[in-house]
Write a structure and sequence with these properties.
transferase, 14 helices, 394 residues, two-stranded parallel sheet, seven-stranded mixed beta sheet, alpha/beta, 46% helix
């Protein structure tokens, strides 16, 4: 049987990791992997997470299954964190998933179950796992323009033009905040325009929000998702706790489905539980219990929010430092977009050839499409990166 297998496309980011590890240069800089790092290059365990885990280990009396949808308390705190009071709880079905990727996969499985002929529209560019999973599932897919390589901002006119081709019942995937891989976000006014167009077309929004709290703060980062959820009878939202709680390896995510009424919510909840059963049965609980413990305890939540703000402000400071250093070196404001982007990533908008030149000549590792992880920098490596960008002719 296994002789019939063919090699699958290599993961470009994992291949980049291997190259970085094999590089003997001591001054190399890793801007490829999408993991938050502090100034020392470490991905720390947050203070609130450590305390929540201590309490769980001390008080937990069983490792029995929590249920096909996961712990209801986890769904409750995540609904509140992401949606606030924008949608009544009675309209929201939810399941815990293994990470944000698990939420994306289960959302696509639900779309395929409910609307097998629907086309899923993705931003160009988007996170590579989006098209990869869609293709694997044999679903129809289309793209809308999103990033302008000249301005390094959103190509809003191109986006609106392409979304005019969306058919009734199609699904449009939108990034809730901190667009991956570009770092360029829609304004609230632009999002309202997109919402109006989607409503007119009869499209269903699907929000991927993986970096809540990494952009402009928890409330502002959730605003677009809440705008969308409150504007439609049906909406899918995939959320990850990997970044904002720093629990990458615990694989903690959630899929929420906004329904038109309580009856539809009950039916959707049953179908979501069914999909979990077919895939992995009961979702992992440790990370979800950590998140629940933090969000239910005022002191832990306050400490978590404070550390999350420190993380966010640290990335904003690195962005500003890099933009300022490039302005000093080039006597130009053409790199100011770096200070305006939000989240862990920015896309330089340069060619794969110049990205390779940065790697070969300067030991700067970033993804071939010029996506770089701002969190991979520190105050000492920002000037190194800025000089390399200028020397390479980016």
């Amino acid at each position: 049987m296994l002789e019939n297998l063919t090699a699958q496309p290599a993961d470009k980011i994992l291949a980049l990791v291997a190259k970085f590890k094999a590089d003997p240069r001591t001054d190399k800089v890793d801007l490829g992997v999408g993991v938050y790092k502090d100034a020392t290059g470490n991905t720390p365990v947050m203070r609130a997470v450590k305390e929540a885990e201590r309490r769980i280990l001390s008080d937990q009396t069983t490792k029995a299954y929590t249920g096909l949808a996961g712990d209801p308390a986890f769904s409750a705190v995540m609904k509140d964190l992401v949606l606030g009071d924008s949608v009544p709880d009675a309209r929201v079905a939810a399941i815990a998933t293994p990470g944000g990727t698990g939420a994306i996969r289960q959302a696509l499985e639900l779309i395929r179950l409910a609307a097998p002929k629907a086309t899923v529209w993705l931003s160009n560019p988007t996170w590579p796992n989006h098209p990869s999973i869609i293709k694997y599932l044999g679903m129809k897919m289309a793209e809308y323009r999103y990033f302008d390589n000249d301005t390094r901002g959103v190509d809003f006119d191109g986006m609106i033009t392409d979304l005019q081709n969306v058919a009734q019942g199609d699904v449009v995937l939108l990034h809730g905040c901190c667009h991956n891989p570009t770092g360029a976000n829609l304004t609230y006014g632009q999002m309202e325009h997109v919402i109006g167009l989607m409503r007119a077309k009869g499209a269903v929004p699907f929000v991927d929000i993986a970096y809540l709290g990494f952009g402009d703060g928890l409330a502002d980062d959730a605003k677009a998702t809440r705008q969308i959820a409150s504007s439609f009878e049906n909406c899918l939202i995939a959320a990850s706790c990997s970044k904002n709680f720093g629990i990458y390896r615990e694989r903690t995510g959630i899929l929420m489905a906004v329904c038109k009424d309580a009856d539809q919510q009950a039916l959707t909840q049953q179908n979501l539980a069914f999909l979990n059963r077919q895939n992995y049965s009961f979702p992992p609980d440790h990370g979800a219990r950590v998140v629940t413990t933090i969000l239910q305890d005022p002191e832990l939540r306050a400490d978590w929010e404070a550390e999350l703000e420190e993380t966010r402000n640290g990335m904003l400071a690195l962005r500003q430092q890099l933009a300022d250093e490039l302005k000093r070196l080039t006597n130009s404001d053409r790199f100011d977009f770096l200070a305006h982007h939000r989240g862990m990533f920015s896309r330089l908008g340069t060619t794969p050839e110049l990205v390779e030149k940065l790697r070969a000549d300067h030991g700067i590792y970033m993804v071939g499409d010029s996506r770089m992880n701002i969190a991979g920098l520190n105050a000492q490596t920002v000037p190194v990166l800025a000089k390399a960008i200028v020397d390479a002719g980016v």
